[in-house]
From TrEMBL:
Keywords: Membrane, Transmembrane, Transmembrane helix
Coiled coil region boundaries: none
Stated name of the protein: AtpZ/AtpI family protein
TM helices/strands, residue ranges: 25-45, 51-73
Secretion signal, residue range per the UniProt entry: none
Biased composition (Acidic residues): 95-104
Source superkingdom: Bacteria
Biased composition (Low complexity): 85-94
Basic and acidic residues: compositionally biased ranges: 9-21
Disordered: region residues: 1-25, 80-104
Amino acid sequence: MPTPRKSRHSGDSTEVERDGGDGGYNAGIAVFSYIIGGIIVWSLIGWGLDYLWGTRWIVLLGALLGATGGFYLSHMHGLTSQRTSSGGSAADSGPSDDGDSNAK
């Protein structure tokens, strides 16, 4: 069980915050940043290539490449993995190795 710590909020000092309480929010912001950043950067690269070569479709390819790359980076950093909300590990809910189906 995570140990409670004092809240970072000013005011009432009896508020407690669990360790990692804002981890989902931070991961969501990171995923959003990777994807939007990838779209912006690769769209600008595509726009520059479109300007140089006189085409109009490379900017769209760049946006698609940026979104895909941003999702790939967030997935490789472990930000899109499924997390348990109970705080326990996924191994706690599996069957026991000793054959006793009621043991946990």
